[in-house]
Amino acid sequence: MKGVPLEDSSLTTSNIEEMGIMFSIRMHASRKIKSEKSKIKKTLNSKLSTLNSIHISGAEGIYEEADIQKVCGEYIKRALTHSRGMPDEIHITIEKIKGKPSRIPLLAVKTLKCSSADEAGKIITKRLSEMGIPEKAINDAFKVLKSRNVMRGASLMLAESGRRVEPDKNRGIRVSRMGIEKTAGRQLAQKLSKMRINSTTVNEALILASKVAAHPDIIAEVCISDDLDYTTGYIASNKFGYLRIPNIKRRGEMCGGRVFLIKENSDINRVIQYLEKMPVIIRMV
Ligand code: PML
What we know:
The protein is α/β, with parallel strands linked by helices and about 280 residues long. The chain has helices at about 35-45, 70-80, 115-130, 135-145, 180-195, 200-215, 270-275; strands at about 20-30, 55-65, 90-95, 100-105, 110, 155-160, 180, 220-225, 235, 240-245, 255-260, 280.
């Protein structure tokens, strides 16, 4: 990684919570589609259906040992009550984190005014152009986000050439091993409640976007939810924070995903290693 993007774990100031041993807890729920194959596989996109199963729900965070049982209970409940239906497999991974997670700031949140997908396109184009991203790369990013062939993970795109550099174009990059300190989590819930947007979807998207934006090689992220009925997306960057964009897609439109626009000369393997494997935790402001 070039430069030092993250505030490393020098726990010296008084407002920093005492972090003991931490655990990354991850949940993934899925359903086999053998018997339902013909019906479901034709209608679902590739993000939801891998070869043998469809994705029902997922969640993850970084927690203290004392919270493991409670969190697992919550994750299991979530897996069993998802609107995508009943899973027949729920995988929970509990992984002890070696050392201390890097502590990073939360991006500032703002909801923009936007009444249509066309307007959203203009807002995103303007923001990306202002950051020096050429038209071709912007169009390439939209191609990924608007494709019906939705990826489970994110696309990693070079911000000048628009070249996609994620090693597996179907799998994409899976951002993982991120969480939020307890006090920061409470602060965030209060803040989002005031804005009337305190949902797990917003919480988790914001934590993920904050991890992504903390890497110095990542210029910006654009996200459209793959959920057919979730029509708010966002553009995020270290420069301007997390900008929510209502009506980024039409209700029922099958498209979505995440694109991370990275510097042309990025060390791609290091960026991927950071996004997928490096534990980070959002700290209190
Ligand atoms: C938000 O409303 O701020 C969240 C937008 C992106 C949701 C992505 C997803 O998890 O589907």
